Amino acid sequence: MYKLPRILSTVVTKTKVCLLANFFLLACFSHAKEAAIIDPSARFHPVYGERGMVVSQEMLASQVGADILNRGGNAVDAAVATGFALAVTLPRAGNLGGGGFMMIHLADEGKTIALDYREMAPAAAGRDMFLNEAGEVDNQKAWFGIESSGVPGSVAGLLHAHDTYGRLDFADVIAPAIKLAAEGFEVTVDLSSSLASRLSRMAKHQASKKYFYKPDGSAYQHGEVLRQTDLAETLKRIASEGRAGFYQGKTAEFIVAEMQRSGGLITYEDLNNYKVVSREPVCGQYHQNKVCAMPPPSSGGVHLVQMLNILEGWDLQTLGHNSAAYIHRLVEVMRRAYADRSAYLGDPDFFVVPIKQIVDKTYAASLRKTIDLTRASQSAQVMPGLDIDPYSLERGKQLAEKESVETTHYSTWDQWGNVVSTTTTLNFSYGNGIAVDGAGFLLNNEMDDFSAKPGSPNGYGLIGGVANAIEPGKRPLSSMTPAIVFDADGAPLLATGSPGGSTIITIVMQIILNVLTFEMGIAEASAAPRIHHQWLPDRVACEPGLSVDTLQLLKVMGHTLRKEPRIMGSTQSIQRAPNNGTFGASDPRRQGSGAVAQESP
Ligand code: DON
User: Fold this and answer.
1) Using a 6 Å cutoff on CB, does residue 119 contact ligand 1?
2) Pairing of strands 408-413, 419-425
């Protein structure tokens, strides 16, 4: 059962806490009766708020969200404002030209909603569109060609969230993003180095060069001001016309003109036909806690629950955090889940995803039995585990027609206990690098998340088959896993999520295990070293910070470790504090992120 993190079991009556910059606690308390709410002996500390909290990859955007909470907005208002602000201040992943998923928990109704605003394949897309004459996948086309763009969903999604669940006027919610774009903001070290690293790719496109680099073609330096006036105009059209301000009229004209200039597929009709879908979250029970996350077309929720189901059968706490015995179990569970992902996961509007079977506890028990606790299995011997032929799950054309239907995470929490957990992306950092001339925003390359050819790996080394084949109007399979975890009484206690492509699901799972099983505070949970396995390629990716002795033990068990350690993800999480306040924690792995607390009353 979830207990409050061991460092946090006493409550202060009046606390005034300032900000935390990644590793270092700069904050202090005006006065604390009894014990401090944040234990100074902990190695990593969250930001504490007496009421709401906003956590995102970019500090200005977090501040925008917190200001919205200060003005009486709820968690959805704060999330929508943060989302639009990120489209200005974090152009590598915050976006208007991409898509995302938003998990919303409504405290009053005790209800959790999963909003799907993933990109959709244009009507002219086809199964073999990324194959060359030799029948091989042309990665350049799938990653950086204009055809790699799916129909953007972010604007429709954020508008839908606000229209349905927001409290403040939309004009007030989008205003900070307009101001940041029109007046500009000081480029951070993070943004300056990120843009510099993509200069050669982006500068190939006139509009991208114009929008994100200086007139002499060089990258902005730290402290210089980046103004995005065309983007500001696009945001103003969204502010005044709503959905039509993006999917019709001038913005649509800019998008279609860009497509025509560069040979892209998106038409006025595709834009007009874009649909947001409100879906049932995938929820599972991990000991006393309910864990809810994004359902298909994300694979995140299904495999998160599946993996926790298998892990629930072992006493992980006794094994010890990041011990070889623990990591061995994680790897074997990940291996089996990603094998299933390759066969059974796709857009549920096109393919009957066997969700119930995959998250079934009996299925988990049967998979657990296949795991040797002393030896690594070989991925070549581990196949998708359900006794179902994926071809039998393909929805008939008629049915589909009839029903016709660098990534970033941010979390918000309001004083009423509403919680939002959102992951959004252009797919690669800066998408395909192509900005829409006149409209000021970058296009996604999400079409690469489809399986362009059965068995052929995508940009994240993930393979797939018929379930995730390209079809007009279909949504590419995602790994994005915005999640909300609940206590035994059904109250939310954690919102989390991460970028990281294929590693997202396993990162989110490790955050949840760190909090629930190892009783870490959210800052400690975020900082702890991570591992990842995805069935194929058959190797364990490890972050720096794991003991060399542990790695040696894993090798002796038969695991192949990825040669170079690698950093994984950038979680942006909020945990409920013992007195119903909030703890925010930005992942220390990346610069520029931040948790900002709502002002105390
Ligand atoms: O939807 C997905 O799974 C991918 N397009 C996410 C890409 C991503 O996380 C990139 N960020 N590091």
Assistant:
1) no
2) antiparallel
DSSP classification of residue 3: -
Cα 527 to chain center, whole Å? Answer: 18
Q: Note whether 550 and 36 are within 8 A (CB).
A: no
Q: Is the CB of 91 under 6 A from ligand 1?
A: no
What tokens appear for 371 in the block? 């795991």
For ligand 1, atom 6, name the residue with the nearest CA. 501
Going from the C-alpha of 102 to that of each of 61, 80, 409, 540, 593, the distances in angstroms are: 17, 10, 10, 30, 19
Beta carbons of 445 and 428 less than 8 angstroms apart:
yes
- Show the low-confidence residues of the chain (pLDDT under 50): 1-35, 397-405
Give the single-character DSSP code of 170: H
Residue 476 sits at the vertex; the CA angle it makes with 305 and 114, to the nearest 5 degrees, is: 45
- In this prediction, residue 23 carries a pLDDT of 35
CA of 449 to the centre of ligand 1 (A): 8
Write out the two tokens for 90. 């974090």
500 lines ligand 1 (CB under 6 A): yes
pLDDT given for residue 37 in this prediction:
72
What was the pLDDT predicted at 395? 67
Q: Is the CB of 479 under 6 A from ligand 1?
A: yes
Tokens for 599?
A: 């002002």
Measured by CA distance, the residue closest to atom 8 of ligand 1 is 501
Helix H, strand E, coil C: the string for 219-280 is: CCCCCCEECCHHHHHHHHHHHHHCCHHHHCHHHHHHHHHHHHHHCCCCCHHHHHCCCCEEEC
**500 CA → ligand 1 middle, Å:** 6
Reduced 3-state DSSP string for 174-209: HHHHHHHHHHCEECCHHHHHHHHHCHHHHCCCHHHH
The partner residues of 117 in beta bridges, in order of sequence, read 100
User: pLDDT tens across 496-521, in order?
Assistant: 999 999 999 999 999 999 999 999 99
Distances, alpha carbon 442 to alpha carbons 94, 201, 207, 507, in Å? 10, 13, 9, 27
pLDDT at residue 27, as a whole number: 38
